[in-house]
Amino acid sequence: MTWRDTGVRIRRPALAVTAAASAATLIASICVACDGSIGAGTKARQASATVSRAPSPRATAVRPAPTTVTPPPPPSPSALPVAPGAGRLAQTSAFPTVKSADFKNAMHDLWLAVTTGQPRLALPAFFPEAAYAQVKAIASPQSDWQYRLWYDFTLDVAAAHQLVGRGATFVKVIVPAQYAAWVYPGGCYNSTGYWHVPGARVVYRHGSQLRSFGIASLISWRGDWYVIHFGAVLRSGGYGEVDDPEPGEGYPGPPGGC
Fold first, then answer.
1. Quick one: pLDDT at residue 69?
2. Around Cβ 6, how many Cβ atoms within 10 Å?
3. How far apart are CA 46 and CA 6, in angstroms?
């Protein structure tokens, strides 16, 4: 149902109109008979009323209430890319360099994983699963990568995280190029060759002290170094290990392994 304005008007009785007209005639006759003093007094009162009238209030500016600006939260740490998609490509014999952006990104990601305790942040630095499937001449290399290599790596990252603690700062990574060797196909159950180097050192500072730990094994894919074994190559139980933690820079190596 829609309600409408009906425009109701109120009529006054005709008697009231006649009485009002008679009163007006009487007042007019009285004013004519006056000597003008009444009109003068009325004008004076009107002037006085005009002078004493309060000024109209001025509009007051309304200030907006202060607003509190909440700064955005700091960005979450994120991994840097290391040769995206390279694991699906064929291997090359290019010797890896430690001066490339990919190597610097890989070590950034490894250190980030250690200091945060989140192994997945180091996934770009870890030997790619697709490349491992090309390297290993074994049944189901993907399962071996997932349930042995990567699982061991996550345990080792947790152990290194406990060792390093809070407040540590990254200094450098020492890769002993003099110990690097090409592993030919057929060795270590491999169908494809690669470069291998043992005992690289991650150097960091904790307060005023310089410290380090090792990377058990780095191997190459298409000219880039990747972590394949972090705390240990072989282990006797399901626990994480830290490779040779030492005060100072420690000692890279020794040579050997695959």
1. 77
2. 6
3. 41
**CA-to-CA distance for 16 and 216, rounded, in angstroms?**
114
- Any residues with CB less than 8 A from the CB of 12 and at least 6 apart, and which? none
| 8 A C-beta contact, residue 161 and residue 117 | yes
- Asked whether 39 and 31 are in contact (CB, 8 A), the reply is yes
Q: Are 127 and 148 in contact (CB under 8 A)?
A: no
Count of alpha carbons within 13 angstroms of residue 152, beta-carbon side = 21
pLDDT (tens digit per residue) in 43-88: 444 444 444 455 555 556 667 777 777 777 777 889 999 999 999 9
pLDDT tens digits along 126-163: 999 999 999 999 999 999 999 999 999 999 999 999 99
DSSP state for residue 149 in the 8-state scheme: I
- The dihedral through the CA atoms of 166, 172, 177, 178 has a sign that is negative
Sign of CA dihedral 228, 230, 236, 237: negative
Sign, Cα dihedral of 191, 234, 221, 198: negative
Strand partners, 200: 215
Overall residue count recorded for the chain in this entry? 258
Whether 208 contacts 192, CB under 8 Å:
no
Q: What are phi and psi of 171, to 5 degrees?
A: -115, -60
pLDDT for position 60:
60
Report pTM: 0.72
Strand-pair partners of 202 = 173, 213
Answer whether 253's CB lies under 8 Å from 199's CB: yes
Any idea which of 58-67, 96-105, 183-192 has the lowest mean pLDDT? 58-67
| φ, ψ for residue 172, nearest 5 deg | -170, 175
